[in-house]
Amino acid sequence: MRLNELDTQAFLWLNSHHNESFDKIMAFVSGKNEWIPLYVLIIGSIIWKYRQQAIGILLSIIMSVVISDRICSGILKPLVQRLRPCHESAIQQLVHVVGDCGGQFGFCSSHAANSFTLATSLFLLFGKQIPSLKYFYLWAIIVSYSRIYVGVHYPLDVLTGAGIGVLAAIFCNIVYNKYKHFSFSK
């Protein structure tokens, strides 16, 4: 069996387990604007606790998100051109879609990339001081799963996005650690 067929079967199985209550929850989890208060809280906490270092820390996190998002949305989606499951005519009638189907192409998931980028960035930057940050990975997994639940991504889209997000965060963390001794306050 081909990888694409396995991915489609896994998607259909995961997507078929739905109910009205979870539809509302997953639509919220999958939203973009719903997480703005969390992002503001993270940014505010970093600025409050790290003051002058905050610029470098925030630049590292922002650059990792930009890199992961651009790789997924700017490079891979137009290059691979894999239809989202909700746009795939062969399975369209079997797909449970919650909300809008989104753009035509879905490989790979920017939601998964960006949530795993944030989780990994926070863990790499602050995990030793705040071990509970590892729970941001649970948040990233739930956000990523929500993309399958709402019918807009295959599991491989999500796994690839997550991997890209982790790698982007690792790369930016290495760069940050190499140059963090430079001062932005002068």
What does this structure look like?
Keywords: Membrane, Transmembrane, Transmembrane helix. The protein has one domain (19-179). It has helices at residues 3-16, 20-30, 36-50, 54-80, 110-126, 136-149, 155-179. It has 7 helices and no strands. It is mainly α and 186 residues long.
The biggest sheet amounts to:
none
Number of helices: 7
Q: From the alpha-carbon coordinates, what is the Rg to the nearest angstrom?
A: 18 Å
Poorly predicted parts: none
Order of secondary-structure elements: HHHHHHH
Question: Helix share of residues?
Answer: 55-70%
Give the number of DSSP strands: 0
Distance between the termini: 60 Å
Q: Into how many domains do the coordinates divide? A: 1
Q: Mean of residue pLDDT?
A: 93
Overall 3D form = elongated
Strand content range: under 5%
- Structural class comes to mainly alpha
Write the layout of secondary structure elements.
Elements: H1 3-16, H2 20-30, H3 36-50, H4 54-80, H5 110-126, H6 136-149, H7 155-179
Can you give me a brief rundown of this structure?
This protein has seven helices and no strands.
